[in-house]
Amino acid sequence: MTQVIVLNGGSSAGKSSMARSLQAVLPEPWLSISIDDLVDAMPAAMQAVDTGIEITSDGEVNVGPDFRRLQLAWREGIAAMARAGAPVIVDDVFLGGPSSQKEWREVLSGLDVLWVGVRCDSAVAAERELARQDRPQGMAELQAEVVHQGVRYDVEVDTTHAAALECARTVAAHVR
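Now predict its structure.
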């Protein structure tokens, strides 16, 4: 039985909407946890030092050792929830591509994981980003392709023209 669904895609690709749609279509309750939840949980001071997380005005994201330490603990906590019986949907952005996936694979070892690539044309993601007005312009375009390079998936969806619910149904068909 699938215990964890990991959604990887760039900013404004539609991962959060798809996670909510997955919660609606899956037959049992699933928790949905996002990398944005981790960033929001960190003290504001973490965004003011190079050891934390820096999001530049053009949308580039740089992370330091303090962020990485807390991120590892966050991942371990998600894995513990899944091991305790709570199915979890993870909404993440693999800035490190295959190294990010490798780190997740290590903490999720022994769990049944469905790896999902959430793609979106960079121009469409940039339009969504502009409409949202909650992140720097340029982030979506910078991340659209790089987060997928070298990453292996069980299933991929493209939200460029497909609705979140349609993509969620495609993913749900792969959940055991």
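Residues 65-83 form the longest helix (19 residues).
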